[in-house]
Amino acid sequence: MAENFLKELPLTTSDKVRQFIFNNVKNKNRARYIANRTDGLFDYSGFNLGEEAGNLTGSGIAEGNIFNTGKGLGLLALGTVDPTRGKANKLLQPIYNKAKSVIKSPFSVKKISGSPYGIFKKADETKAVNKYVNTVKKGISGSDWYEKGGKSILKLSDDNPKLANKFAENLATTSAGTGVSPNLAFSIKGHNQAIVGDKIITGRFPKTMGKQIDEIYNTNKYASGQKRIPFADQLATGGGFYSKKSGQANRAVHDIWDGRAWGYTDPSGKPITRGFTPVEHKWMDTQMNKVINKLNKNKVGGKTDWTPGQAQAASWTGAKIDAGLVSPNNAAFSYKEAFPDNYAFQSRETIPGIETGHMKGLIDEPLDVRQAYDREVTNLLYDKQGRDKISKGVGLLTDTSIPTTGYFKGQFNPSRQSKVAVGREKGTPFIDASSEKLLNATEGSYGLLTAQDAAAWHYLAPNKVALKNSTIAELNLGKTLSQDQAKELNNINKTLMKKYKLKYDPIAVVGSDTGVRLIDTTKKNSAFNKNFAQEIKEISSNFGTNANDIKFGTGSGNYFEMNEYVKNINPESKSKIIDSLDNTLPGLANKMNELDIKFAKEYGYDLSPVILTIRKAISTDGLKGLTALIASGAVPSVVASEINPLLEKHDN
Fold this sequence. Notes:
Blueprint: H1 2-8, H2 13-24, H3 28-45, H4 47-63, H5 66-77, H6 88-102, H7 122-138, H8 145-156, H9 161-174, H10 180-196, H11 206-218, H12 228-239, H13 256-262, H14 278-297, H15 308-322, H16 335-338, E1 343-349, H17 367-381, H18 389-393, E2 398-408, E3 411-421, H19 433-449, E4 454-460, E5 472-476, H20 483-499, E6 507-512, E7 515-520, H21 527-530, H22 532-542, E8 551-553, E9 555-561, H23 565-569, H24 576-603, H25 609-631, H26 637-640, H27 644-649
Antiparallel strand pairs: 1-3, 1-4, 2-3, 4-9, 5-7, 5-8, 6-7
């Protein structure tokens, strides 16, 4: 019998296919590739397993090999495919049927619908809940992740729930497969493109996500998807601006990290990397209710009011700690901590420039008088939280400004740095075109309104650059730049001008939250530019700061004088910026005139009729009033120059 069986034992189907491929495909590498893919298909379908079971069982019986017979019967019992071949079929079938009835297939025990592998009964669900609770405890420092992020969004959105909701939905849209920092950068870029009216192209899938963000901002649609909807809703709930009538604020956000905390893996047992099915979302929702009850019952973290968002945020943090991707010290990194890396600084002084001839004499007054005027202007142009009204008026995400010392052409005056969120061009440290338009327009408007000789903004990108390519350096002085420190830097600039034979300051000095930013104003590859890092290190030693603590980098910036204000505002553009400015500037222009007339009368300063007339035109008819005024010839050429193309289009 054994001899007859062995004679009938053929090559497996897989063997025959491989033999055929290698006999007919000349390129052996190609043949190997096709053969391996075919083997994979046979393995996936269970075909090879079935044949192996039949061969093992048949040969084991024929040879009297109990070990092979047992292995074969075990495979047969799994119920793959009918494995028997030829005459062996009659012999093996009764044995196969008996094995099938005795040996229970593990695949016949079904896991609970929607659960991870290994969840077969209620006791397994209880274990999964307990494991999840332990992950929450490990990451409890991140439980307020949505609260921190949501409150930051609301603050930067001018406490406007409608704008904050749009940005939260925007964040949800670009969140897939990204960390906190790139997710935020993508969304800021999309936000600025939306408020300018430019085409939105951002995110990992720029065209698709851009279209979705456009619908959020312009058609009042919400983010979609079982992960995105609760993500936006949790941010809104945490920030206190949730307003949907039928949202999903009661659901946790089941991203891959939450799924891993629940024990989901791919078929090979590796951590899951895909999204979840509706049935899996439902299972996790059900288990989350049990988690919340357990957290509240045990007063975990001293709380009895846990929410799904807080529990998921803590488990997300704990899962990342377990994966070794974050340390417990910085595991709770949220949008609140990420926003500052995206801030551009807008340099804002209030004392009118010498060249404008406005409020003549004020710039030479003692510091206390200039500070008194600065307080009056600040109360007009900034809100109670120190946010710049012009920037937030156009929709820029605007944070509290920095009171510091202004330094311009040897003059030292009270100043502020207005902080606004900007996007970056993909893969570069430079801001995107829409953000640049917004900065130029708002900075030009401020310079025009406050009669400044010049306007400027800059952005220090978080991207790491080689020291030789750095153009911006930030020194940590423990607190913002003082007037005495600004004067010392003025003297250093004079020395550097002589050393490098320059006719202008090689370093622009800008106060920051905890010190000063020093910006290279020279051309690329100039002698000073090549020695920028070394010169900064020497300046650092003069201020007693550690050279290792200097933050070197690069980024974007612009400086323009009053003859370019209108060009940078560009009131004839089709941009939404102009409509936004027209909603903000008229009231501010009128109040600035009232303030200056009052202050000049009290201190005896001369007022510029041109500045008063410009403000009057803006207060009466917005930026259209300004362009009409320029076209009439009532404004000196120093203000009107470089906008001839604009004037040619203007209908007088």
